[in-house]
């Protein structure tokens, strides 16, 4: 995956990129809006679902505006690294590899990530 992303120019030598954030900077926290006055900080187990939700444009006008303001504040690089499917797959793989493949379930997830990546970038 890394070699193909490099070949595609997604991981250039002179660019700053992050596949994983191990700190609690506000830009690294994922939250789910529960209601108008409550948010829930999500955990690692919900990360895949939250990333997929983040790529969607909210149907609600107010939430759509919040997303637009957030993206304006964090800048284009954040959006590029957060929403591009190749980066999301690389993040998931990094997560698996840093914790180790300890079960058949972990191996299955790693194989699914590779399969999705190949569908994006490899011709049949």
TrEMBL record:
Organism: Trematosphaeria pertusa
Designated name of the protein: Aminoglycoside phosphotransferase domain-containing protein
Lineage, uppermost ranks: Eukaryota, Fungi, Dikarya, Ascomycota, Pezizomycotina
